[in-house]
Write a structure and sequence with these properties.
Blueprint lengths: L12 H4 L2 H10 L1 E5 L4 E3 L7 E7 L2 E6 L5 E7 L4 E2 L1 H6 L6 E4 L3 E7 H10 L3 H25 L2 H17 L10 E2 L6 H7 L4 H13 L3 E4 L2 E4 L2 H8 L7
Helix pairs in contact: 6-8, 6-9, 7-8
């Protein structure tokens, strides 16, 4: 089977707005700060506002029937949160928790829908957010079926490195520090693998000189090589 093409991240919701749209949306919002580990929204809550992250990283988790939290995604600067629950008129389907100090804009539901009515072209951005997240979920599911644990982790870290580089430029040597600081348990939950599998995979990627690691800190030192390892690109000659 031919390797799948990498899915390069699109600009976040906020970055895709023009100046007038940002001004109008900021006027409808209130600014709020969240400390590390603070929840931004809870699974099962009523949907009365959306959130736009201005700074910082969060994780999206869902609780299973036995009380186990599963990591579904990370969201970072410029991302729109909780919009599907508000626009669909249903309760929150997941909990969002700060991985770092977060600064965000909180927009009441009626003000957000009013903003969309006044700026109908932004509806396409919201729809694009839905579609991209469904595509990302499908891609991870296919990777789970077709790839080894180390390949799945390589793909996940490459995706996170590309997203991180949108907000903090790579170092002069081209290395990229991954912004969202996830534990081995969190990485394992996201890729449906044990902590031991993640630890072995990190060891293998370090030995291949593709990453460096510290306490909750992963630096990608060879992004093209990491993509090639994951099977997303042909290795360079």
């Amino acid at each position: 089977m031919a390797p799948s093409s990498p899915c390069f991240p699109r600009p976040g919701f906020w970055a895709a707005l023009d100046t007038a749209q940002r001004t109008a949306l900021r006027a409808a919002a209130r600014a709020r700060q969240y400390a590390v580990k603070a929840p931004l929204v809870y699974q099962g809550d009523e949907s009365d506002h959306v959130i736009i992250i201005e700074r910082g990283w969060t994780k999206v988790t869902s609780s299973t029937e036995d009380g186990h939290d599963v990591v579904l995604a990370v969201r970072g600067p410029g991302d729109l949160l909780a919009e599907s629950a508000v626009l669909g008129g249903r309760t929150r389907s997941a909990t969002v928790t700060a991985l770092s100090p977060v600064r965000a804009l909180v927009v009441p539901a009626n003000r957000f829908t009013g903003f969309l009515d006044a700026h109908p072209d932004v509806w396409m951005l919201v729809t694009g957010t839905f579609v991209q997240r469904i595509d990302d979920s499908d891609r991870r599911l296919r990777a789970h079926v077709a790839s080894r644990g180390t390949q799945r982790l390589a793909r996940l870290l490459a995706d996170l490195a590309e997203r991180s580089a949108q907000h903090v430029p790579p170092a002069p040597d081209g290395s990229i520090v991954i912004g969202p600081r996830l534990s081995q348990e969190e990485l394992g939950s996201w890729m449906d693998a044990s902590r031991e599998t993640v630890a072995r995979a990190l060891t293998g990627l370090r030995a291949a000189a593709l990453i460096r690691t510290g306490r909750r800190r992963i630096t990608v030192v060879d992004l093209p090589g990491l993509r090639a390892y994951a099977g997303d690109a042909e290795p360079a000659d």
